[in-house]
Amino acid sequence: MSHLLEVTDLRKEYLLQSGLLSAVMGSRRVVHAVNGVSFVLDEGGSLGLAGESGCGKTTTAKLILRLLHPTAGSIRFAGRDVAALDGSDLLSYRRQVQFIFQNPYEALNPRFTILRSLLEPLIIHEIGRSIAERVERVAGALDRVHLNPPETFFLKYPHQLSGGQLQRVVIARALLVDPVLLVADEPVSMLDVSIRAGVLNLMRELSRERKLTTIYISHDLALIRYMCSVTAVMYLGTICEIGPTEEVIEHPRHPYTQALVSAVPDPDPTRPRRPVEIADTVPTPFQLPAGCPFADRCPQVMEVCRHLRPLLLPVDAGVRVACHLYPDSTVRKRVTRLMSEGYFRIVGVASPFKVGMDVVAIIGLNVARQKMTQARAHLQRLESVRYIGITTGTFDYIIEVVLPSMQDLLHFLMSDLARIPGLSHTETSLILDIPKQSYDWLPSALAKPRVFRDAAQPSRRRGGR
Ligand code: SF4
Predict the structure, then answer these.
(1) What is the ipTM of this complex?
(2) Is the pLDDT assigned to residue 457 strictly greater than 70?
(3) In the chain, is it the N or the C terminus that has fewer CB atoms within a 10 Å radius of its CB?
């Protein structure tokens, strides 16, 4: 099934160049605002992006809205690559994806009347055949957000309305153009507590009525629980946990989610609570730790966490978690199953204390002769693959794939392996952490970014395996 929105390995980096010395020395610091975010959203679904300020949730929203260009990764909307849209396709995308700003006071031009602000999107998107029809649409939209009678708001300026009324105008403006996806960034955080529930109820009611797909961005887990069926918790530019909202909030798996949930006041005072305390040192987005981004604050940190970045992997109940407390067993189960099904055999195994520090994985893939070209092209497209060597086997080709880190290996095993065309399931072998000297070609191959040897080599495999 194709998804309405597919975000894949989305990244946004900013180059920082500050001070005379860094300018002279040419030293640059990179801010990783969004660092490999992936999720899908189906039509009619509602996703909450939760996390502290600066975790990358608003940048993710701006990338989806194409207000920013990603450094890497892709966003597909209704099957189309958003980065490739231009002209009328881009205009249509901008109509279908609407944004509700955090601050309604900044969302509207203070010099425009409410009527003019609401007519503008109709004119831009050529909705309505006459001015009378457009004014009628505006009146209908104001009525729908309970601003009655609508005509009394037409000639008012934003400063003449309360915060709640203004946010209703912003909602009306977003819905005027019949969007498919609505992205709301902290939609009630600037409003008085007394009117927040009214605005949220209105948004929920309108979303259901129009079968809108929604993304809510908030640091407030209670809001997300009320509004969203799926929740993604972000930390330092990455998603650390994602799954059905009730699962994520009732049974948080990731230590950071546990800390966030434990900080939310519980309306039931009789329920036992175990506060999770975390250190208040937040790493800066330009000094990302080599391993888990949460390692410096995590109460359950282990040695492996400091060296190996955890992948976002399925745990249970539809929840995926990026934490070494969980995926290890999943990976082990997956590897065991793949081995029992004959996908590969482990020829050598890394010593446990080295895992995550300096692991080099080499996988020998036996590929049917007629599929070799396809398989090679497929492997060359994979970011995790550093080196491909091709030799001829007795009945087929052997493609040796070098994966430079445990991270790449896990990704390869968990998702890439099953998609290689023409793979012979019985002969694939895996070597972990083999001594480099036994492969004299290896260091120079790894020193280069990506090396592909296209020509098939005669006879035996390299290294005398
Ligand atoms: S990977 Fe390690 S440091 Fe990161 S959240 Fe899990 S236990 Fe904590």
Answers:
(1) 0.99
(2) no
(3) N
